[in-house]
Each structure stands twice: as C-alpha cells, then as structure tokens.
Design a protein that fits this description.
There is one protein chain. By secondary structure, the chain is of the alpha+beta class. It has a single domain, classed as Lipid/polyisoprenoid-binding, YceI-like (Lipocalin). 19% of the residues lie in helices and 51% in strands. Strands 1, 2, 3, 4, 5, 6, 7, 8 and 9 form a 9-stranded antiparallel beta sheet that branches. The longest helix is centred in the N-terminal third of the chain and has 25 residues. The radius of gyration is 22 Å and the shape is elongated.
C-alpha cells in the first residue's frame, strides 16, 4: 500500500508540474525593437497627399494565446514626426499634436479575439485604449501577427479621425486636408 501511495503522489506531482509548465508556456512577453518598428501615416489633401513616419519609442506586450489575455503599452514619440517638409513638420508638431503639452502617443491593448498560432501567421482583432493629444479613445484594430521562433512581427492599418478627436485642422485657405489620417503600424521584436 505504501508503494502505491508514493507512486500515486509522484504521478500527481508530475501531472501538476506539467500543467503549471503548460500554463506558463502560454503566457508570453513581446518586447518591441524600436529600431525595427515604425508608424507610417498618410494624410489626403486637395493638392496632394502627405506621407510621413513616427518612431516607436518603446513597447512591451504580455499575452496568453490560450486564455486570450493581453496587456502592455506601445509608446510612439510625436516629436519624431517627419513628412519631408520641415515647415509642415513644425506645424504638425507644435500646432496640431502640441508636443510641448503631450509628449507621448500610446496604445494599451486590453483584449483580443481570434486564434493566435504559436508559429506562423494569424489575424486577430485587438481592442485597447489609444491615447492621442492627452485623450483616451477606445480602438479596435485588425492585427496581422507572424511568429517564428522567438521573433514576432505585428502589423495593422487603421484610421484616426483626428479632427473629431479634438486636434486642430491644419487646412489653410485653399489648401485643404482630410479630417482623418491613415496609420500603418509595424512592430517587430522578440518573445
């Protein structure tokens, strides 16, 4: 009887250890590499479209593929905005984004839907809080994920209704620009 108890206890310990290790293996941390990541923007206008970029300052995202939990923070530096025209960039930074008052643009993921593969490609919907110009906005974006080994790439495209969200319309006289800006975000990093 004593041998059976020891074997049963050892067996139960191995099962519990395997379950605990499996749960830990599902929880992962994605550390964004700012040098390999970027934010591209496109702003339509009646004269021409403006294209530019912002730099990702930092980012860490914790997620659990099985429980479908996600948290973290992606930070973009609004002072890094560049469109190829120093005058236009100064106006964007000082008058529209007001970088002196609002030093960060952030996205804080809160949940996701869809299946996230352990390797290869997945498409999920990520919902979170997008903070621009000091104001938080609920935002859900489609996200294409590619995982390979310990490397992860996340890409999304979405539109920001910046005028509706309270930012200044940079249109002047006959030069009119769209009231929404298109964003292409690419995050690369390691798990």
């Amino acid at each position: 009887m004593h041998k059976f108890t020891v074997v049963a206890s050892l067996g139960m310990t191995l099962i519990l250890t395997a379950l605990a290790l499996s749960a830990v293996a599902q929880q992962q941390k994605f550390i964004v590499n700012p040098a390999a990541s970027d934010v591209a923007f496109q702003l339509g206008g009646n004269a021409h479209a403006v294209h530019g970029t912002f730099h990702v300052q930092s980012g860490v995202v914790n997620f659990d593929r099985v429980a479908r939990k996600i948290s973290g923070l992606i930070v973009v530096d609004p002072l890094s905005g560049a469109s190829g025209s120093s005058g236009r960039d100064q106006k964007m930074k000082n008058e529209v984004l007001e970088v002196g008052r609002f030093a960060e643009i952030t996205f804080e993921p809160k949940s996701f839907t869809g299946d996230l593969a352990a390797n290869g490609d997945s498409t999920i919907q990520v919902t979170g809080i997008f903070t621009l110009h000091g104001t938080a906005h609920d935002l859900t974006v489609p996200m294409q994920i590619h995982m390979e080994g310990n490397q992860l790439t996340a890409k999304t495209r979405f539109t920001v209704p910046y005028v509706q969200w309270g930012l200044k319309d940079p249109s002047i006289f006959v030069l009119k620009v769209a009231k929404e800006v298109g964003i292409d975000l690419k995050l690369e990093g390691q798990l």
